[in-house]
């Protein structure tokens, strides 16, 4: 039974009581200390995060019940996964007229079909648990990134997550064969098909993947599996220019038999921050270089000779290559990867940072970095560009660390104008201002500013068709008509 609090109104108590009666008291967390962890947004950018209640359904039918009741009571629903997003897509805003829908209890792996190379799992399953389940069947689920012990597969699909292995296996969208989705009116679409070929109509699943819960709530997915990795070769290369990195990447793809799984570009500035502030990070080479490339080759064959292929590709006289080291064991390989994975956190040790997640065609990466660096330094003298990212798919995290002479607060006031400059340059190279982190509530203004009127109209038509009352994740992704453009 709900005990009222002074700040609650009768409508709050009515909604909470109704949900508790239908789903059980354990499914509802009411305002108070128990709700605080669900209202904490990872980057702290959305401090006004509020909600009437947190609801934790235990199965798909319960999610459908929540949506039906939300319609009856006229409240919005914000789906929440593992809270690892960086754009506020799973956070409520300062409008408390929503309930947070946590999918953490939908955490069952329904089936692993090794012969069909598929796995069916519910949305609240941790990514690391899916990886382990696939490995238990001698298969590989290749989606991987730093937050894999915390993020949930439903959120991965809702944001079309990328990560380290996009070059070889694709984004989350490329790994999904079928979905189960609860619609805004509470109906359930069962599209859990493990088929590689199905041209019997519109590919509905692709509408929900990457939509950040604005068109429907993903409750389960059938995912592709692959043969396990049996051989791996890892190297770090020092380079004199970003152009040399792009050239080497192309040559490695050809010379390695296209076995590159990951290819990460790191500038000297972000690498230096990792060495200075990261745990267990050290200089990877005897000489410092302006740029570094971290390379992983993998194969399911036991005799792929990847170390030899990597050595042959790197030992030539390619212009721009300074030095390299090939890992002699898994410990050394982990040391190389620790450098890359430490960069985002290490930036905090150097002061406030402004993070940009953009993509451009691979061939344009050097020109983009040069132009964007010049633009932000002109606008904010002393700013330290920290570019790094997935060179194989053109996704560059063009992060900015504050000048040493500027306070954190003063630098963060430059967020919007500096971000606009970076986004404008990315778009000038036929790129994107939201590569893998999504739009959330951070970038709808940039959607309004940078996407064509036709594209915005199509997005709004889809939103209206699937969610005419704007009940699903309101205020996210699709900019309201008349919203003033901003950089977030």
TrEMBL record:
GO terms for biological process: respiratory electron transport chain. The keyword Heme does not apply. The keyword Secreted does not apply. SUPFAM superfamilies: FAD-binding/transporter-associated domain-like, FAD-linked oxidases, C-terminal domain. GO terms for molecular function: catalytic activity; FAD binding. Belongs to the FAD-binding oxidoreductase/transferase type 4 family. This is D-lactate dehydrogenase (Cytochrome). It comes from Spiribacter vilamensis.
